[in-house]
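TICKET: design request
STATUS: open
ATTACHED STRUCTURE:
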């Protein structure tokens, strides 16, 4: 939930995508024990190679994956804090929560510098289409480089790592404080929230809200509609200005609720939580008619993805080989070194990336796409992270900014 005078800063960054499906191996691979170790690879003599010689994953893919793994490794201990709340306001609230909470997601964003999290954020989103479209606030994703969403776990106290997915930005509206995301590889069985109608909203009617206030994941609160405000304008601490029809509400809302659905007794969405006026117990949500127009325009225009990314580093290339017949391509970048291992016939076997901070990322089990099915990240301290992929690289994407 954004304050009108203060943008929330939630110290959480869970930026890793785990996929459940694996592609079949492209060919046979020797056991890991027979491959040269990183230390052995580093000690080999290398000769300069042409810059058009290719490794496996490029710099951008390795950099994104290293950043995501580092963030997840540092933040994974936060996950057990989740305790599913039990609604206490009666049968209607219980029914609404059980029906809609699986459609509510956690949106996690972060920026990095020198492998350190410089800024992170947590917000709420809601699935509005089974194809994987997620609605959230513009201010939840604005200014962040990387983001993923977590689906609600079916049971237990920890968000399931296999329910984390990469998203791309489809469209955004700064004035309306809305953003539409698309899950890169949405799982089957997603359930979209039903959309209500502005004409049905009554002042003083009961409303229900689901979100992640102060990191208390998938929490429920209730309240009433105080009024519908046309052409309501507000501003955040970053200077962004907004204007839209909103619902004024009296309910318990806190940072982390931003992007959560406002629901009626029939579990239909009436608005999207946006912000509050600090100290005045005034809370606001973007009204459903504004949401409908934004989503319809976004899907009609078929805007996809983010701005083009500047040209990535090409690195300086070197080659070597081992007595066992393995060939090594070494690519030196500004902040990491990549080693691609191939057999005597040139078949891809493994890729190792070592960052300047000493963390190591290893890709194994080559797949049919020229990438790897499994990755292992070992930070300089903390727990290792395993990643699975169904394509060339793990499905991590950047949010970026659309035109």
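STATUS: resolved
RESOLUTION: sequence designed for all positions
ATTACHED SEQUENCE:
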């Amino acid at each position: 939930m954004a304050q009108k005078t203060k943008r929330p800063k939630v110290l959480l960054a869970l930026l890793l995508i785990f996929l459940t499906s694996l592609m079949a191996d492209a060919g046979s691979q020797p056991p890991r024990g027979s491959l040269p170790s990183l230390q052995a690879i580093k000690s080999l003599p290398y000769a300069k190679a042409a810059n058009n010689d290719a490794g496996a994953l490029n710099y951008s893919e390795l950099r994104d994956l290293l950043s995501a793994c580092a963030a997840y490794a540092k933040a994974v201990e936060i996950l057990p804090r989740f305790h599913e709340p039990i609604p206490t306001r009666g049968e209607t609230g219980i029914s609404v929560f059980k029906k809609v909470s699986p459609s509510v997601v956690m949106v996690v964003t972060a920026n990095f510098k020198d492998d350190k999290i410089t800024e992170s954020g947590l917000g709420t989103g809601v699935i509005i289409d089974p194809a994987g479209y997620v609605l959230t606030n513009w201010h939840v994703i604005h200014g962040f480089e990387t983001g993923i969403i977590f689906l609600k776990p079916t049971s237990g106290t920890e968000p399931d790592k296999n329910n984390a997915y990469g998203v791309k930005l489809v469209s955004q509206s700064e004035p309306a404080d809305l953003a539409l995301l698309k899950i890169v590889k949405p799982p089957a069985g997603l359930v979209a929230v039903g959309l209500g109608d502005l004409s049905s909203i009554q002042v003083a009617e009961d409303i229900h809200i689901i979100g992640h206030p102060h990191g208390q994941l998938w929490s429920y609160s209730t309240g009433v509609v105080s009024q519908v405000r046309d052409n309501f304008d507000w501003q955040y601490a970053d200077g962004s200005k907004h204007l839209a029809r909103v619902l004024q509400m009296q309910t318990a809302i806190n940072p982390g609720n931003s992007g959560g659905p406002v629901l009626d007794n029939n579990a239909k969405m009436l608005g999207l939580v946006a912000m509050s006026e600090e100290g005045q117990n005034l809370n606001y949500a973007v009204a459903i008619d504004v949401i409908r127009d934004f989503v319809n325009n976004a899907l009609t225009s078929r805007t996809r993805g983010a701005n083009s990314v500047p040209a990535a580093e090409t690195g300086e290339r070197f080659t070597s080989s081992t007595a066992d017949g393995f060939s090594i391509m070494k690519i030196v970048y500004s902040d990491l070194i990549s080693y691609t291992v191939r057999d005597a016939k040139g078949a891809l076997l493994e890729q190792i990336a070592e960052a300047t901070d000493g963390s190591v990322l290893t890709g194994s089990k080559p797949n049919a796409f020229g990438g790897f099915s499994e990755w292992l990240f070992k930070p300089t301290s903390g727990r290792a992270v395993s990643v699975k992929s169904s394509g060339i690289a793990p499905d991590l994407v950047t949010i970026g900014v659309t035109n």
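CLOSING REMARK: The two ends are 26 Å apart (CA to CA). Residues 59-75 form the longest helix (17 residues).
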